[in-house]
Structure formats: structure tokens, C-alpha cells
Design a protein that fits this description.
The complex is a heterodimer. By secondary structure, chain A is of the alpha/beta class. Chain A has helices at 46-53, 76-82, 99-108, 115-120, 123-142, 158-170, 188-203, 216-222, 240-245, 247-257; strands at residues 6-17, 20-31, 35-39, 61-66, 69-70, 84-86, 176-180, 208-212, 225-230, 233-238. Chain A is globular. By secondary structure, chain B is mostly helical. Chain B has helices at residues 2-32, 39-56, 61-84, 92-114, 143-165, 167-177, 179-184, 189-212, 223-227, 229-236, 241-269, 277-292, 300-304; strands at 133-136, 139-142. Chain B has one domain (2-224). Classes of the chains: A alpha/beta, B mainly alpha.
């Protein structure tokens, strides 16, 4: 396999809240065009990793690089503009908007018409909005949610909402997409659907994926590389096969999750 | 009947100007989830700026008008940057109370400058026609009121386009729902807040001018006029732009009709409604509408049920 360069570098990052250490000297890489996964038991610090990357938390020490930029203390909206999109563990859609509008919020960041153009709805603004609509429709097609286009997201089934959230993240045309438990609370069929979409996003749209999930089967099936966290520390990394053979992983992860 | 039509049209004109203040309330609420009680002070401040530039600084009136409106927008932006930005993530109630403080602060300085005597704004509406009014057939209209109606119409048209069609409107809606998620979508939440307050300031100043221009004059009590837009917003639903406009029109027409027909009503029912009943009447309407629809005529609950 050809050695790929890193898209995201998570370097020696520590984060604590008061006396609780959420992350302790955690390092890992996300290679370009790869699906990388972070796994670990509850409270291992997986979501903290996401919040550090997307700029909601500032790490106490360590650095995060995206392409050539140091994004460690960058504002969340700037990080999104650089090309990192995310979904949330519990769906965080704009419930007061329709599916189409949710997706448009992402496409809109890529338009460049100003406030005055917006106010007078100039031809530049009009052209921009037409482009945005087309982009949004492409995403809607891709995720097969055509029939829900004008529905308010609150009224949709859980699995569809998860897909809309994926669509909203894609609308930013990201280089890296962070998925926080995309298969949480789903049945087998829905999990398979989501897994298929994740692979399509990676292979067809050429977007790197950083994935957090509990579903070991799905993760080992689709991820190229896995990093395992426990109590805020990295305890293993490698290919799926390497990781599931690793004795400390079995002890920490599988062992503790069996009742 | 002629009389009724004239009073009705005056009510609509009054309501249109209320709607400018009401839109300020709604836009700030939509974007930031905060009901800003500083709008009335901003309206009076706008009139104060215009008055200062046109009468004391001796600048051409129309230029003063523009400067005054933009300065008030800038003050709105300044309030957001200095006071409210510190409060992001704090309970909405605390922030609303802070806006009351801002309102009092602005009015304290402004009242000191206004002084005891009413101030004319230096516009020439007083010199037009018959004491600033004109007649069409049997109807008699004030130039200033009609200008207010016209300007409100144009402004509402532009804002509607802005919110319905442009990306800024959607960004505001998204931000109002969830700031953290909006950030993750690359929306510059700070800019959205600033924009909302800037627009709020502009609208307040335009309304402030119509309230105090011509023979109306600017006094220490002028801000009360803008405060009357509050029941309009409550009637329409705090987060609905059409609601704000319709609520304002209801308030304007009610106030106008109550003012002109108070004597007839008193005589008919043989009661005494007291002085200034016309300004209380809108609150009575508000009371009954809230009894039936607590979220206002066009409030969010309606939208969510779709």
C-alpha cells in the first residue's frame, strides 16, 4: 500500500476539566482519503477529541494540525471553513428548519456575496443562491432523502435525521468529516445503510472520515486504521486486525463492556 | 364613514411605524433569543442624533437623517460587542435584564442633553402645506405620517427579501436555534449577532425620527412611543416577522380608532374611560389575543406543528 500523507495530526494533546483528566498526551494521525476510527469505552475521551478538533474545547497542551495549519486555538467557525465538518452524538439539527434549509446552512458558507447584495438581492446573490440550491440537491440525491426535502426535521424518523445531519456536514464540502457515533441507537439495517454511506463518502466523494462508534463490527468492517482510548489515554493503534488482537484492548474494551 | 376611513388610514400609518420598532425586537430575538428592551432608547437616541446634527451642528437635515440612522445602527453594534458579547451562553433572562440597564443608561445621557423643553428635529415637515398636512378630496393626511408609511413599506420589503432569500436570514435562524452547532457549520455567530443589533438600531432610528419629526418634537418621554411596539410584538409572536408587522398594524389601528371614538363610546355606554385610553387599548387587545393564543398570532408553536 502506498504511504499516504497526514491530513490531520493530533499531537500530544492533553485536556482536563478541574481535577478530571479527559485526555492525556494523546497523539494520532488521520491519513488523507482514509477512514480512521477512535474507539473506547464510555468516558474514554472520544467526544473530547472531537470537541478539541472542532474548536469547542481548547487543549491544555499539545497541538492539532490540519493540512499545514495549526488549528489548536482557532475559532470553531474558522475550523469549519478550513474544511472540517462534524456530526454530533445526539443529533443536533436545526429543528426549526426544513431538511433543505439545514443543508443550505452548510453550502452558504461557501458563497461570497455580501450583506448589501443580500439586502437588495442582487444578481450575484441570486446566482449564489441558485448554486447553493443545486449543491444541496446533489447532497439530497446522494443520501436518498428526496422525499423529505421540505419536511421539518423534527417530524422525521431517527435514522433519516441521522442522514440529514450527515448531509448538513457534507454541505460544507469538507476535506475531513468527523462522525460522532453515526450508528448509535440504530438497528442492524439502519447501521448497514449508514456504513454504506460512510464508505461512499470516503470512496466517491474522496473525503477523509474520522469516526467514533461503539459498534465494533461496523468499525472493524469499514475503518482503515483504529486508535483505542481508555480513560483519556491511547492504549493501542493500528489496523482493525492488529487492534482486535491486542491484549490491552481486549481487557479494557471488550472485557469491561461484557457484563 | 369618511371620518372612519381617515382614522383607519392614520392607524395603518402609525402601525407601519410601530412595525419598524417591532421588527427590531423580532430580528434581535430571532438571532440571539434575547428580547432587547433597549429598542425604545435606541429609537429616542436616533432622534437625538438627528436633532443634534440638524439643529446644533448645522448639517443639512437629510444628511443628518442618514448620519443619525447609521450612528444608531453603530451604537446597536457597539452594545452587542461590548455588553452582550460577554453574556453569550448566559441565561436569556439575565441578558434581557441587562438590555433594560442599557436602555436606562442611554436614556439618562440622552435626557440630560434633551433638557426640559421639547426639541424640534430641524426637518421641514412643519412647513409643508397646511401645518404639515395635505388633503385628497375629503381626506386630510399628515406628510410625515405618509412618509413614515412609505418608508416602512420599502424597508419591510427589503428585509423580507433579505430573510427569505439570502444566506444571512438562514444563518440567523440557525444561530438562534443552536449556537454551537451553527459554529460547527462555519457560521460566524458573532457576526450574525452584530448584524442583528445593527439592523435593530437602524430600524429604531427610522421609527424614532417619524415619532419625533414635524410637530411631534423630541422630549424626555419620546421613548414611550417606541415602547408601544412591544404589545405589537407580543401579539404577533416574538419570532415572526409577518407577525410583528400585522401586530403593529393591529396596535396602530386600535390606538387610532380608540383615540377618535373614545368620546362616542363613553357617551353610548355612559362610562368614563379616562385620559389616554387610546394608549391602553392595545394592551387590552393583547390581553385577549394571548388568552386565545399564548404564543402570539404567528409565534413559533405554529411553525413547529407543520
Amino acid at each position: 500500500m502506498v504511504e499516504l500523507s497526514s491530513l490531520l495530526k493530533f499531537e500530544d494533546v492533553s485536556l482536563s476539566f478541574g481535577g478530571i483528566t479527559a485526555l492525556k498526551n494523546v497523539s494520532f494521525d488521520v491519513k488523507e482519503k482514509s477512514i480512521t476510527s477512535i474507539i473506547g469505552p464510555n468516558g474514554a475521551g472520544k467526544t473530547s477529541v472531537f470537541n478539541c478538533i472542532s474548536g469547542i474545547y481548547s487543549p491544555d497542551s499539545g497541538n492539532i494540525f490540519f493540512e499545514d495549519a495549526n488549528i489548536t486555538n482557532m475559532r470553531p467557525n474558522k475550523i469549519a471553513e478550513l474544511g472540517i465538518a462534524r456530526t454530533f452524538q445526539n443529533i443536533e439539527l436545526f429543528e426549526n428548519l426544513s431538511v433543505l434549509e439545514n443543508i443550505l446552512t452548510g453550502v452558504h458558507r461557501r458563497l461570497d456575496y455580501g450583506i448589501l447584495s443580500g439586502l437588495f438581492y442582487s444578481s450575484k446573490a441570486k446566482k449564489g443562491e441558485l448554486y447553493a440550491r443545486k449543491e444541496a440537491e446533489d447532497i439530497i440525491d446522494f443520501l436518498e432523502i428526496e422525499e423529505y426535502r421540505y419536511s421539518y426535521v423534527m417530524s422525521l424518523p431517527y435514522g433519516i435525521q441521522k442522514r440529514v445531519e450527515l448531509g448538513r456536514a457534507l454541505a460544507l464540502a469538507p476535506k475531513l468529516i468527523l462522525l460522532d457515533e453515526p450508528a448509535a441507537g440504530m438497528n442492524n439495517e439502519e447501521t448497514e445503510d449508514i456504513a454504506r454511506f460512510i464508505i461512499d463518502i470516503n470512496e466517491e466523494l474522496k473525503i477523509s472520515v474520522l469516526l467514533v462508534d461503539h459498534d465494533m463490527n461496523m468499525v472493524t468492517d469499514i475503518a482503515h486504521e483504529i486508535t483505542v482510548l481508555n480513560f483519556g489515554e491511547k492504549i493501542a493503534d493500528g489496523t482493525p486486525n492488529e487492534v482486535i488482537e491486542n491484549s490491552s484492548v481486549i481487557e479494557a474494551y471488550v472485557g469491561s463492556s461484557k457484563k | 364613514m369618511t371620518f372612519f376611513i381617515q382614522v383607519f388610514i392614520e392607524g395603518i400609518a402609525l402601525g407601519a411605524v410601530y412595525s419598524l420598532v417591532a421588527l427590531g425586537f423580532v430580528i434581535i430575538f430571532k438571532a440571539t433569543d434575547v428580547l432587547s428592551f433597549a429598542q425604545p432608547a435606541l429609537a429616542a437616541l436616533g432622534a437625538g442624533f438627528i436633532c443634534y446634527f440638524a439643529t446644533e451642528a448645522g448639517i443639512n437635515f437629510w444628511l443628518s437623517l442618514l448620519i443619525g440612522i447609521f450612528l444608531t445602527g453603530a451604537v446597536g453594534l457597539l452594545i452587542e460587542r461590548t455588553v452582550l458579547r460577554q453574556m453569550v451562553g448566559e441565561p436569556v433572562f439575565s441578558v434581557a435584564v441587562i438590555t433594560i440597564g442599557v436602555d436606562i443608561l442611554i436614556r439618562t445621557f440622552l435626557d440630560d442633553w434633551i433638557g426640559d423643553e421639547p426639541r424640534f428635529l430641524g426637518d421641514s415637515f412643519t412647513s409643508y402645506g397646511n401645518f404639515g398636512s395635505f388633503s385628497i378630496g375629503e381626506f386630510n393626511f399628515k406628510y410625515l405620517e405618509m412618509a413614515g408609511l412609505f418608508v416602512a413599506f420599502i424597508v419591510i420589503l427589503l428585509l423580507n427579501l433579505f430573510f427569505k432569500k439570502s444566506r444571512y436570514g438562514l444563518a440567523m435562524l440557525a444561530t438562534s436555534f443552536d449556537q454551537e452547532t451553527a459554529l460547527a457549520q462555519g457560521i460566524n455567530v458573532g457576526r450574525v449577532f452584530g448584524l442583528a443589533w445593527f439592523i435593530g438600531g437602524l430600524l429604531a432610528a427610522i421609527a424614532g425620527f417619524v415619532f419625533t419629526g414635524g410637530f411631534n418634537t423630541l422630549t424626555q418621554l419620546s421613548f414611550v412611543l417606541a415602547l408601544r411596539a412591544l404589545p405589537a410584538v407580543v401579539i404577533g409572536g416574538l419570532d415572526s416577522i409577518p407577525g410583528a408587522i400585522i401586530g403593529s398594524l393591529i396596535i396602530g389601528v386600535t390606538q387610532s380608532l380608540a383615540g377618535y371614538y373614545q368620546y362616542s363610546i363613553e357617551e353610548y355606554f355612559d362610562i368614563n374611560l379616562g385620559l389616554g385610553f387610546s394608549t391602553v387599548a392595545p394592551y387590552i387587545i393583547m390581553f385577549f389575543i394571548l388568552l386565545v393564543k399564548p404564543e402570539g398570532l404567528f409565534g413559533t408553536k405554529e411553525v413547529e406543528r407543520v
